[in-house]
């Protein structure tokens, strides 16, 4: 299952992504927020990351106005690798090389057509392992040094 969440600045794009999931039989859990309900992106990032860390969901999509705030907030949570992506190639590399559990998108900077291409590229990709796993392990070890 995929976790999805947005603050109020990303609801429209989140809804577009949910429609894509529905049309393609992809299971997801919407962690909020909903139209016209204000929400702070750190709160939504924390909830979505919790759904991944507790095993309820395997990966996720976070959306805010730019994707930057969601990315920063999600990456503060121990055990999470979130990638702010604005193009298809970066989405693919986020999964293949960095084994990112979450991609972060910005409704104000990425149109719905491109966003769906990004989502598809990310979820169609698989972590390549090998030398990339060693690097992911080094990334995760950085959390333990703090």
TrEMBL record:
Belongs to the LacAB/RpiB family. D-ribulose 5-phosphate binds at residues 7-8, 65-69, 98, 108, 131, 135. Transmembrane segments: none annotated. It comes from Monoglobus pectinilyticus. GO terms for biological process: carbohydrate metabolic process. This is Ribose 5-phosphate isomerase B. One of its GO terms (molecular function) is galactose-6-phosphate isomerase activity. Its EC number is 5.3.1.26.
